[in-house]
Amino acid sequence: MALDPTKHADWEIAEEAETRMKTVYQLAEELGLEKEELLPHGHYVAKVDFNKVLKRVEKKPDGKFIDVTAITPTPLGEGKSTTTMGLVQGLGKRDKRVIGAIRQPSGGPTMNIKGSAAGGGLSQCIPLTPFSLGLTGDINAIMNAHNLAMVALTSRVQHEFNYNDEELAKRNLKRLNIDTDRIELKWIIDFCAQALRKIIIGIGSRMDGFMMESGFAIAVSSEIMAILSVAKDLKDMRERIGKMVVAYDKKGSPITTTDLEVAGAMTAWMIEAINPNLMQTIEGQPVFVHAGPFANIAIGQSSIIADRLGLKLGDYHVTESGFGADIGFEKFWNLKCRYSGQLPNAAVIVTTVRAMKCHGGAPIPVPGRPLDPAYKEENVGWVEKGTENLIHHINTVKKAGINPVVCINNFHTDTDAEIKAIRRLAEKAGARVALSQHWLKGGEGALELADAVIDACNQPNNFKFLYDLSAPLKTRIELIAKEVYGADGVDYTSEALTKIKILDNDPDISKMGTCMVKTHLSITDNPQLKGAPRGWRLRIRDILTFKGAGFVVPMAGDIKLMPGTSSDPAFRRVDVDVNTGKVKGVF
Fold first, then answer.
1. Which residues bind ATP per the record (predicted)?
2. Catalytic site residue 530?
3. Are strands 46-48 and 277-281 parallel, antiparallel or unpaired?
């Protein structure tokens, strides 16, 4: 008997469920995997040799494809990962052969305030501790590969500064004339460490490096993480890593990892990481965990490889996109689907009464502080006003030509009148609506959601991209701003305009998608603006270029690639039972 989520923490529920979970050998047998295709990491986690599997099943038709997205969340989150697990479990209860795909959590939010993104209550991905603390080492491999590029770059800068051309030639080095004011990469670490955002390196003698400004970003913002998310195979990954731009020379020409002769070694760190990780829901359905980019500062999707496996091995495959439909779904729609060729049958938009109240005028929740009493009292007016945000996201999904399903993730404080208000307004906007109690009841609580998704998948779609890659960069940015965010237009800093002019003359631009960087806490670029604001303009302050991943990255608003750790981080409550070795307190 599963523990009661109203009385037990998520880690306690996961720990109890792990006493009954299937081994990876059972999961592999149920998936139809052959022995040599499974690469176990212990008894309950494994990697899957995707290349062998896909070659064997390449002629098998794809299953139904469902993306899970959300409304603009409160700072507490609205249970999108929980809903993803709940939907997988609900479809399982309907005797569907179903597989899920979610992202690997970063150590930054896991040890800070957001948690590990394993789901919650009776809808979780287990085993929880390996999932939350490094899994099979993919993020560690990304950090090593990325930081190796920084080692190659900074050592070359030092050598070029210390030696003349003749001395460089003796060391079999060609002068690259690196402009130290135009270095594109930072170092990465998988924690939220605001003290490392800006640093000075190379302090000391000439043997200690070249002194210059540098800094750290969080690991999941690395271009290599984006490459892991979109790469189709090892050959594609190697080519993409070789195209990464690390700096520019003094004439303004890009310097790549290939120029630094480090791309091959970087790929060597990634040969195991390219294989997806196999785990399971609390109820035993298979889940692929692969890649972990945030959606506000990166592409925000689990890997194309994981989806290809799920679609070939299951009749239904449920994947998750980060944050709201303005961010994660937009990138799923215009980036992931474009690169993979895999088109969805339905999209689930997760909402809560709590979020509708927040968007309707209730005080904004603050993580780590008690929830304002207003959230426990009925207020249909706030809910109706906040539903403007939900309808905005429904319309975004409809613009992609995809059937939207609204999932009301049910909390015990929700009232019938509040739920009816959401249902009425969402259905009027053209969405199917399902109330789901998966957090409390697992798959049994998600049957209404599962039925709505099955029905949506059986209806025809009219999928279309928002923009053509042939469109100028400013046109793409302005389409996203107006059609997805609801902005009146776009303003650019002089720095952004200069970079756009350069990119417009770059022949590679027509092969690259547009990956926006924007706050997840508002449809706008101002995290304090809730609901569906009108009469505002998006401000683009900078443009980054990820040539390996195939992205142009416009930066909107004041958002950091290295988050900060709060005054009350989660690591204060994580500990180890020294008698059993079990970790407690992870959520």
1. 74-81
2. no
3. antiparallel
